[in-house]
From TrEMBL:
CDD domains, A to Z: SRPBCC_CalC_Aha1-like
Organism name: Amycolatopsis magusensis
Source organism superkingdom: Bacteria
InterPro entries: ASHA1/2-like_C, START-like_dom_sf
UniProt cross-references to Pfam families, sorted A to Z: AHSA1
Family: Belongs to the AHA1 family.
Protein name listed in UniProt: Uncharacterized protein YndB with AHSA1/START domain
Ranges where the Activator of Hsp90 ATPase homologue 1/2-like C-terminal domain occurs: 16-138
Length: 159
């Protein structure tokens, strides 16, 4: 990790094509509350985690089986004073064969320790990549944030 980017990665026992398919299935590992295109250049999607965090992201590069890149267009954290954090940052997913295994290298360029959100974002990305994406790749089921409207409906029906 450098002082200009947050980087983490995982290595799994799956083929690059399977790993790539999981990476672009953003609803399967980051949040079920994503609307828009996540797998084609020029596609834009909106991420929501209630009022806590929302952002709009554009897909800037897709090399099937190898790489996906995003540009954060808009961002809002409920918990930071600086409302520009993340805006203009880029996120890369590199899918790299590693012998019989495949590595995912995740880099959030511009996510720096000076950001108010850094500690929370560090923990969140570590979870989403190291746990949720890994489980999606290995088992077919990740641990994304649920769509909050679905949670509310489930609570209401259980009452």
């Amino acid at each position: 990790m450098s002082d200009t980017a947050f980087t983490t990665g995982i290595t799994v026992d799956k083929a690059p094509a399977e790993v790539f398919a999981a990476v672009v299935d953003v609803r399967g590992w980051w949040s079920a509350d994503i609307d828009g295109d996540t797998d084609r250049v020029g596609g834009e999607f909106d991420y929501r985690n209630g009022d806590l965090h929302t952002c709009r992201v554009r897909v800037t590069d897709v090399v099937p089986g190898r790489k996906v890149s995003w540009l954060v267009l808009e961002n809002h954290f409920q918990f930071t004073e600086d409302k520009t954090e993340w805006v203009g940052t880029t996120i890369d997913f590199e899918v790299v064969p590693a012998g019989e295994r495949t590595e995912v290298r995740f880099t959030h360029h511009g996510l720096v320790p000076a950001y108010e959100c850094y500690d929370i974002c560090f923990s969140a990305w570590t979870h989403y990549i190291g746990t949720s994406l890994r489980e999606l790749i290995e088992t077919g089921t990740g641990r994304p944030n649920p769509r909050l409207s679905d949670v509310g409906a489930a609570v209401a029906s259980a009452s």
